[in-house]
């Protein structure tokens, strides 16, 4: 998704991992923190059909101050909408490259194996049919990295 008023962003801390999950309200455009990656992925997986609005967060309305401001105090990255929600037991990880050029995505499996491509996911599911029996499909995975918002990257000295 291009940078828009209904974008979803994460911030990246100095260790190059995402440390804050947030979404932007489709009505007032304020940023709302999402407490966990799992909750963020739930919102993200249906974002195009069901955009986030402040009233979806308990006790919050568009009249309340933003939870976080978009600025260059941290590096922000933006996800495409409607990425599949990570299957139960798996963990989607995104790591910024040291040169800040892009993020790499991978999945940790329940048995500790790291998957770096859809081909690896397919091989893993072939070797572990117990996950297929739980309705885990290759299409449940996305290695599409978020876009780094260059205006928030640290200034080079």
From TrEMBL:
Q: Which domain of life is it from?
A: Eukaryota
**Cell compartments where the protein resides:** Nucleus
CDD domains attached here?
Answer: MeCP2_MBD (cd01396)
Q: Name one Pfam family in it.
A: zf-CW
Record's PROSITE patterns? MBD, ZF_CW
Keyword terms of this UniProt record: DNA-binding, Metal-binding, Nucleus, Transcription, Transcription regulation, Zinc, Zinc-finger
Query: Where is it predominantly found?
Result: nucleus
The record's annotation in Gene3D superfamilies points to: 3.30.40.100, Methyl-cpg-binding Protein 2, Chain A (3.30.890.10)
Presence of the UniProt keyword Protein biosynthesis in the record = no
- Give every MBD domain span: 76-148
This protein's GO cellular component annotations are: nucleus
**Mind listing the GO molecular function terms for this protein?**
DNA binding; zinc ion binding
Question: The CW-type domain covers which part of the protein?
Answer: 15-70
Please state what the protein is called.
Methyl-CpG-binding domain-containing protein 4
Species name? Sesamum alatum
